[in-house]
User: What shape does this take?
Amino acid sequence: MSNDSSNAVISIPACDLPRTERKAAAVRVSLTVDQITAERERITQTAKARYEAGDRTGLNGPRGHYMCGDSVGVQVFEWMTDAELDRFHILGLAFPSTATLRDEARARVKARIAARKEGFKLKRLGSTTPQPTPDLFPDSL
Assistant: This one.
């Protein structure tokens, strides 16, 4: 009897997860990936609008290096409130992992293959023309 723990799944009680992980798990249950993406985009657009207006009301001092920026020269995170930044981070954690996406894709492929096989069986059984059966023991040998 071998004691192989490579397939063992370790379950961590929700109360032992960090606060942000618990929040991300709640978001995963309540929102779809498209909804998460849309909310992150809304937060980003709000921060960009704040930057374009030059309105730093309610914002703390700079978070990073002064010269850091994205492709348009503005680091959007600098123009998010603490609550927006926290929500943006939690939404990012809520995205499904690559492993989850891979497992879901494999399940969809298996379901399509099974449906295709079932459809083939039904088509073959429901057909009115006789299907040729392979001759397992031909007399000509």
Notes: The chain is about 55% helix and 0% strand. The two ends are 50 Å apart (CA to CA). Confidence is low (pLDDT under 50) at residues 1-10.
